[in-house]
Design a protein that fits this description.
Blueprint lengths: L1 H7 L9 H36 L3 H17 L1 H11 L1 H20 L4 H29 L4 H31 L3 H20 L14 H20 L5 H24 L13 H31 L4 H8 L4 H17 L1 H19 L8 H27 L7 H27 L8 H11 L1 H22 L1
Length: 469
């Protein structure tokens, strides 16, 4: 009788977001879309910026690296501040500052002014992004509802970058400064909507206890590490080893500070989670691969082949297929196969995509490069969203900002490292006049993204093996 009653019981209703939930989610998606579009628009504008401001390859790389360096360097602090002082408040303040410094970037008349503006803009994003992610993970209950929201959110983020490439191409045709002014307009509209729709979040008790020494130690270590790698080809080995030794000292001091702190910036116990570590390591490598790939490809197409910014963006826009597939197809695949196998499948597609572009030729047409970017779009569909879920799953609500901060730190840190490595390689292209020799330099640089995603695949395969056991 009891069994028949259970069998006759109706299935539990599918959880719904509701009007308020949808409003908050759309606002946060607008913010992450803007962040991605901001980077995408700048990517295709780099050659025009170089020509107008007279920047060398190293300086040009820092226009990109300054942003991701500020972003990744302050992300852990941004996530913790959001947990302590209220996620809504931190999100709104950071968004307001993002508006100011994005506008200042468009007014820059010297290379150092633009680099400084991009660095501060990255710092504001470092507070805005983990606050936004933690608002989602605390607004929607863990499970299918949160997964759906996160996949929608991550798909919007990737789509922002991809669509930003096209928008950036169009704006660069008018003038590269509009690449900075248009985000100001969009961000202002998002700010107004955020005030209305984002729910108020209470600050934690003991809110004044911020681990300032720990924040200074880890931020200094990250900034110095990326700077050391970027400068390695231009300075002596002794100076590079000395700076890396100082990085090791800063990291060791950070661990000591966190162990002794009553309110640590990073509770070290959170780093004992194997799935979380694998997700973040793969995020770092996946980001390093893509940032290095797009930097090399944009310079190759525009400076060696003579493509316009619009032509370049029309090739890279194909990657935006993940905007549609991530919230629609990816949830079905995750439900059927699980997150880890889906991520591994996406990483294998990324290996294929970068392998396809490796034999680059001077006479390659749009059609010749199209398979690589299509496969890369499919890879983003399978990797980015599930990684976001894996990096925040099974984390206590009071540490969701921290978990989001760790994830985005690794993602942005990976981007900065990828840019540093390939910029060092591509710099040799400026020293040769022979197009064939320059082509070999670009091919050498394209080995970097291939190696990075191959390593990420190996790391995530350990997750599949552990899951099978």
């Amino acid at each position: 009788m009891a069994e028949s009653a259970l069998a006759a019981a109706p299935a539990a209703p599918r959880p719904r977001m509701g009007a308020k939930g949808w409003g908050a989610l759309l606002v946060l998606c607008g913010a992450i879309f803007l962040e991605g579009a901001d980077v995408g628009m700048l990517t295709v504008a780099l050659p025009a910026i170089r020509a107008d401001l007279g920047l060398a390859t190293g300086e040009l790389q820092w226009v990109m690296s300054a942003y991701v360096l500020g972003y990744g360097g302050f992300m852990l602090l941004g996530g913790r501040v959001a947990d302590l002082f209220g996620r809504r408040r931190v999100f709104l303040i950071a968004l307001a500052l993002f508006i100011v410094f994005s506008g200042l970037g468009g007014l820059a008349s010297e290379g150092w002014m633009l680099i400084l503006a991009r660095f501060v803009t990255g710092v504001t994003a470092a507070f805005m992004t983990p606050a936004g992610l933690s608002i989602i993970t605390t607004t929607f209950a863990e499970g299918a509802l949160r997964d759906r929201a996160l996949l929608f959110y991550s798909g919007t983020a990737a789509g922002g970058f991809s669509l930003g490439l096209v928008i950036g191409g169009l704006l660069t045709a008018i003038g590269w400064r509009w690449v900075f002014f248009v985000p100001v307009i969009l961000a202002t509209a998002i700010f107004v909507a955020a005030v209305v729709f984002i729910p108020r979040t209470p600050a934690q008790t003991g809110r004044g206890r911020l681990d300032t020494p720990g924040a200074l130690a880890i931020t200094s270590a990250i900034l110095l590490l990326v700077f050391s790698i970027e400068r390695a080809p231009h300075v002596g080995l002794e100076l590079t080893l000395g700076s890396l030794a100082l990085v090791a000292v800063l990291l060791a001091s950070f661990v000591v500070i966190e162990r002794r702190s009553r309110s640590p910036l990073v509770r070290l116990g959170i780093l004992r989670s194997g799935p979380l570590l694998r997700a973040n390591a793969s995020s770092l490598l996946f980001s390093a691969a893509y940032s290095s790939f797009q930097f090399v490809l944009v310079l190759f197409l525009q400076e060696l082949l003579g493509w316009s910014a619009i032509q370049t963006s029309l090739l890279l826009i194909v990657i935006a297929i993940d905007t549609v597939l991530t919230p629609t197809v990816t949830p079905i695949l995750v439900k059927r196969f699980g997150r880890i196998p889906v991520i591994v499948g996406g990483l294998l597609l990324a290996v294929l995509a970068y392998a396809l572009i490796l034999p680059l030729q001077m006479d390659w047409t749009y059609a010749a490069m199209l398979p690589s970017v299509i496969v890369l779009g499919l890879a983003f569909t399978l990797v980015y969203g599930p990684l976001t879920i894996a990096a925040t799953d099974d984390v206590a609500e009071e540490e969701q900002g921290l978990a989001g901060g760790i994830f985005y730190t690794m993602f942005q840190f990976g981007g900065a490292l990828g840019l540093s490595v390939v910029a060092s390689i591509v710099g040799f292209a400026s020293a040769v006049d022979d197009p064939a020799a320059m082509l070999e330099v670009y091919r050498s640089a394209l080995v970097v993204p291939l190696g990075a995603v191959a390593l990420a695949t190996v790391i995530m395969l350990f997750g599949v093996r552990r899951r099978t056991r």
